[in-house]
Amino acid sequence: VQLQASGGGLVQAGDSLRVSCAASKRTFPTFAMGWFRQAPGKEREFVAVIGMDGGTTFYADSVKGRFIISRDNAKNMVYLQMNSLKPEDTAVYYCAADEDIVTITAGARAHYWGQGTEVTVSS
Question: According to the model, what pLDDT value does residue 108 have?
């Protein structure tokens, strides 16, 4: 499956932004989808994951209560709504897919990766 992330940009602290990820494969509904991010000079970290039917979601503690992950299986799309953005949210955001949600949540790994979309939050 090919993944294409978009929607990044430059925003101010406290603003909201939604990043999107389009998947190419018709079997998209069989994949758990996740978002990761990598800030300059730091390792990639898990942000959020959503199960195949959208009924299960998990978030990193750093974004819990501010970010919302969702998916539209009819459109092969996954979204990350980011609210109350902070400068420390600045990073390149990557979407990822895996057949097993545990691989994403427990292992911070995934079978398929998209290119990143850059989010910069100014103070």
Answer: 79
